[in-house]
């Protein structure tokens, strides 16, 4: 991630002392988001020439999480509380302790209540000299336009497969599991980590692949629904894997040259129209799952949807 960062316009702005006082980092990959923000904060606090040098006091303190001029919010929960926003706004106008800069890193910015975003707005508009805000968001739809207009927005680039594989190896993940997780993560490192650390991941992949290859008739509903009912806590993972296979099969049908056995099998059994509609319909079930609909009805509806799509858009 450091290499990505050093190629960015933000990195050039830091070296030229032209960085905006408010930066909004956006990517659905929470691991990449944290790593990129870490590089950015170290570069801001670095006193060396090649920022971040990793050797100066500022860099080392950020690395060890004890730089008193770098404050992280929220502190205990995923959502920024009213008390924390009040504390943060008070600290903005306090002088730095050890350097000429202070940095406020705010995670889950897209989850901040809109009334509290409005409270934060004034500080983003007119921060004291040497004060920086780094906002982290997995998406920016819920962030007020007035907030975004005052931030330098950076779309954090995706990590490549070899980088993600290296992260999993550093976590001592078995190579076969790491390779499988990378192939299904859509270049999202946090997703790959979650997959790799799930002891049932291989079985989940096998079940989804089996549904694609063999689920064709309504009399099979009971068998597949009974298996999927066991995934109450991990059904979004099932849907993510399903969507990943859809995308790979579409890519194959559109002429991409890839060696991918499951995508090849799916491409033989589903038309491109069917796969596009599977993708659209499956995303509806992702939203239903997140809105706490009855789980069994979500599973049944998902399986009926697959049969319906097969029937409506057969291979011609």
Describe this structure in words.
The protein is an alpha/beta fold. The chain folds into 3 domains: 154 residues, P-loop containing nucleotide triphosphate hydrolases (Rossmann fold); 39 residues; 115 residues. 56% of the residues lie in helices and 8% in strands. The protein contains 16 helices and 5 strands. A 5-stranded parallel beta sheet has the order 2-3-4-1-5, sandwiched between helices.
List the helices and strands and how they pair.
Layout: H1 2-6, H2 9-15, E1 22-26, H3 30-45, H4 57-63, E2 70-73, H5 82-92, E3 102-106, H6 114-125, E4 131-137, H7 145-148, E5 152-155, H8 161-170, H9 175-184, H10 189-197, H11 201-214, H12 221-228, H13 235-253, H14 261-269, H15 272-290, H16 295-312
Parallel strand pairs: 1-4, 1-5, 2-3, 3-4
Helix pairs in contact: 3-4, 5-6, 8-9, 9-10, 11-13, 12-16, 13-14, 13-15, 15-16
Rg to the nearest angstrom? 23 Å
- The secondary-structure element order is HHEHHEHEHEHEHHHHHHHHH
Question: What is the count of helical runs?
Answer: 16
CATH names the topology of the largest domain as: Rossmann fold
How would you summarize what this structure contains?
The protein has about 325 residues and is of the alpha/beta class. It has helices spanning about 1-5, 10-15, 30-45, 55-65, 80-90, 115-125, 145-150, 160-170, 175-185, 190-195, 200-215, 220-230, 235-255, 260-270, 270-290, 295-310, and strands at about 20-25, 70-75, 100-105, 130-135, 150-155.
């Amino acid at each position: 991630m450091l290499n990505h960062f050093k190629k960015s316009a933000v990195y050039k702005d830091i070296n030229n002392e032209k960085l905006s006082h408010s930066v909004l980092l956006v990517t659905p990959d929470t691991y990449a988001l944290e790593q990129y923000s870490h590089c950015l904060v170290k570069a801001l606090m670095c006193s060396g020439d090649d920022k971040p040098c990793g050797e100066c006091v500022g860099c080392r303190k950020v690395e060890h999480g004890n730089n008193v001029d770098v404050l992280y919010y929220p502190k205990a929960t995923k959502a920024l509380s009213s008390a924390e926003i009040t504390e943060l706004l008070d600290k903005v106008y306090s002088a730095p302790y050890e350097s000429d800069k202070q940095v406020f890193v705010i995670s889950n910015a897209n989850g901040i209540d809109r009334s509290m975003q409005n409270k934060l707005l004034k500080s983003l508009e007119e921060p004291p000299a040497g004060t920086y805000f780094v906002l982290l968001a997995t998406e920016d739809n819920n962030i007020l336009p007035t907030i975004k207009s005052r931030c330098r927005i950076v779309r954090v680039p995706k990590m490549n497969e070899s980088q993600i594989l290296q992260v999993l190896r550093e976590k001592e993940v078995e190579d076969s599991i790491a390779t499988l997780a990378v192939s299904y993560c859509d270049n999202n490192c946090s997703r790959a980590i979650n997959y790799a650390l799930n002891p049932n991941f291989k079985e989940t992949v096998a079940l989804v692949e089996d549904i694609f290859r063999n689920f064709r008739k309504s009399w099979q509903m009971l068998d597949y629904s009974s298996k999927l009912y066991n995934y109450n806590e991990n059904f979004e993972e099932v849907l993510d894997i399903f969507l990943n296979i859809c995308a790979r099969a579409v890519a194959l049908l559109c002429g991409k040259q890839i060696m991918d056995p499951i995508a090849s099998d799916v491409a033989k059994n589903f038309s491109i129209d069917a796969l596009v509609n599977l993708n659209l319909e499956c995303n509806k079930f992702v939203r239903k799952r997140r809105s706490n609909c009855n789980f069994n009805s979500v599973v049944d509806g998902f399986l009926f949807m697959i049969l319906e799509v097969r029937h409506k858009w057969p291979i011609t």
